[in-house]
Inverse folding.
C-alpha cells in the first residue's frame, strides 16, 4: 500500500532531524527499504531472504529495524538511557514516537527524533554489515546514537530558539 496524498509525508516530519532521516522513516513506513524479502518479492535474485545480521528470520522492514535480536539490544540500550520501558516497542510507536503522557511537547518531539535516529542508524549498520562486512557492538551503537542525537537535536533546537528571539 502506498500513500495516496501528501498527508502521509506531512506526518513523517520532525524538524529536529535531518531530511535524510525523515526520508528514511517515510521509506520504512511504506516498506520501501530494500530488505531482502522486498527485493525477492520484486523478482530480484537474492541468495537468501534471511536476515544478514541474525540469520534466523526472514528480513522484513519490521524485523530489520525492531524485532531482530541485534536491533532489540540497541533499542533496549536507548530506552534504558531514557528510562523508558522496552515492552511497548512497536513499529507504530517508532513512527509516532511513543512518549509517557507527562512528557512535554518538546520532550515528545525530542524522543521521536532520538527514536528515528536510532532506527536510521540500525539500518545504516545493517548496510555496513551487508556491503562492508563490518558492524557495531551495542555499546558503540549507543554512543553513536547519543552523539548524533545530541548534535542534530541541539543544533536544530538552537536554530529554532534563534528564530523565536
Ligand atoms: Zn535478524
Amino acid at each position: 500500500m502506498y500513500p495516496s496524498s501528501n498527508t502521509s509525508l506531512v506526518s513523517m516530519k520532525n524538524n529536529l532531524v535531518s531530511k535524510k532521516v525523515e526520508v528514511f522513516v517515510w521509506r520504512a513506513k511504506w516498506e520501501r527499504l530494500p530488505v531482502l524479502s522486498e527485493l525477492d518479492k520484486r523478482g530480484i535474485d537474492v541468495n537468501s531472504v534471511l536476515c544478514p545480521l541474525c540469520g534466523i528470520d526472514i528480513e522484513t522492514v519490521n524485523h530489520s529495524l525492531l524485532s531482530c535480536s541485534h536491533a532489540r539490544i540497541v533499542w533496549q540500550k536507548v530506552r534504558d538511557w531514557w528510562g523508558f520501558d522496552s515492552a511497548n516497542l512497536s513499529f507504530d510507536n517508532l513512527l509516532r514516537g511513543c512518549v509517557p503522557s507527562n512528557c512535554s511537547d518538546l520532550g515528545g518531539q525530542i524522543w521521536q527524533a532520538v527514536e528515528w535516529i536510532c532506527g536510521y542508524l540500525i539500518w545504516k549498520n545493517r548496510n555496513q554489515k551487508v556491503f562492508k562486512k563490518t558492524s557495531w557492538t551495542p555499546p558503540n551503537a549507543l554512543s553513536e546514537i547519543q552523539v548524533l542525537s545530541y548534535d542534530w537535536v541541539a543544533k536544530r533546537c538552537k536554530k529554532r530558539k534563534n528564530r523565536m528571539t
Notes: The chain is about 60% helix and 0% strand. The helical segments are 7-10, 19-29, 36-41, 61-67, 69-82, 91-96, 105-132, 138-164. Residues 22-164 form one domain. Residues 51, 53-54, 57, 63, 68 surround zinc ion (CB under 6 Å).
